[in-house]
UniProtKB/TrEMBL annotation:
Name of the protein described by the UniProt record: F-box only protein 8-like
InterPro entries attached to this UniProt entry: F-box-like_dom_sf, F-box_dom, FBXO8_F-box, Sec7_C_sf, Sec7_dom, Sec7_dom_sf
Gene that specifies this protein: LOC113113684
Record-annotated SEC7 domain positions: 132-318
GO molecular function, one term: guanyl-nucleotide exchange factor activity
One Pfam entry name: F-box-like
GO biological process: regulation of ARF protein signal transduction
CDD domains with a match to the protein in the record: F-box_FBXO8, Sec7
Origin superkingdom: Eukaryota
Length: 323
């Protein structure tokens, strides 16, 4: 039922082994005080084979009162952070099945609230006064259903969220939802942002590139808004919006280095081409640092040679800016 359940079951097995070890060792010590042991040699060998070194697992998972009790460990006995970590490996279907095993935990609204906000960081419904009888468990199922719908058809997915009152039909709210959500397919997201440029503008504004080196800022940008696989109008739009946002976040750097949105635009394309050149196995003759500096300064003459050289070093050491 998922990696989380498997790990809990495995830890339970380790606890059983440790309990048997302690039981057998206690009997063996008692036998030394009372005289020769009555057990046969075969049982003594089994006692030696039951030794387990992990005592921390015993203290963490000591949740059952007797050896005769069976079944899964009650997650309510674990720290809340550990319970949420275990359950975060499960999807909506497995969570419903898990709630049948841990019934008290499955009815904990604080747990479902934490799962909602850890997966979908921003929703318009979070900031509204919730009605009596509101269920975060039901909200989790609706968010999961809406995300699956979005990954099949972006427009229908957004319409689903709005019909359930989860999102408000405003570009800034939709942009925040996209920015803080990790369940959306990047290809479907690219299609949606290409059609909704107002949402794209708000999404770019959410990025803060202050005091970031240009290649690192570009990586952070493409981590939230994936670059298209082919060069086209959409890629040019992304780089243009990034260039203006980067200069707006770094006014001091603009004055010291002499950057401008046009210069950043040129440098971004140079970084993308350099990334492809250095990381592609099909390019045998890699571009040298001297060649990169010469080619880049032809297009951006106001940029110093040292700054362009640092750009090359960053790509050479860290890797592709749009990977």
């Amino acid at each position: 039922m998922g990696q989380g359940l498997w790990r809990v079951a495995r830890n339970q097995q380790l606890q059983q082994q440790y309990s048997e070890q302690c039981f057998l060792q206690r009997d063996r010590e008692r036998g030394r005080r009372m005289g020769p042991p009555l057990a046969d040699p075969l049982q003594q060998r089994r006692t030696l084979q039951c030794q387990v070194s992990s005592t921390d697992i015993s203290h963490l998972l000591r949740v059952r009162k007797g050896k005769e009790e069976q079944g899964f460990i009650d997650l309510e006995m674990l720290p809340p952070e550990l319970s949420i970590t275990i359950l975060s490996y499960l999807n909506a279907t497995d969570l419903c099945l898990a709630s049948c095993v841990w019934q008290d935990l499955g009815n904990d609204e604080y747990l479902w609230q934490g799962l909602c906000k850890s997966t979908w960081g921003h929703c318009s419904i979070y900031n509204r006064r919730l009605p009596s009888g509101f269920s975060y468990r039901k909200l989790y199922m609706e968010l999961d259903e809406g995300s699956l719908t979005f990954n099949a058809n972006p427009q229908e997915g957004v319409s689903y969220f709005m019909s359930r009152g989860i999102l408000v039909d405003h570009p800034k709210e939709i942009a925040k939802f996209i920015f803080y959500t990790r369940m959306l397919n990047w290809k479907m997201l690219q299609i949606y942002l290409d059609e909704r440029r107002d949402v794209l503008d708000e999404l770019v504004t959410l990025h803060n590139f202050s005091n970031q080196f240009l290649p690192n800022a570009l990586r952070d940008f493409f981590r939230h808004i994936h670059a298209p696989e082919e060069r086209g109008e959409y890629l040019e739009t992304l780089i243009t919006k990034f260039s203006h946002r980067f200069c707006a976040c770094n006014p001091t750097l603009v004055q010291e280095v002499g950057l401008s949105p046009d210069a950043v635009y040129v440098l971004c394309y140079s970084l993308i081409l350099l990334s492809i050149d250095l990381t592609s196995p099909h390019v045998k003759n890699k571009m040298s640092k001297r060649e990169f500096i010469r080619n880049t300064r032809r297009a951006a003459q106001n940029i110093s040679e040292d700054f362009v050289g640092h750009l090359y070093d960053n790509i050479y050491l860290i890797g592709h800016v749009a990977a």
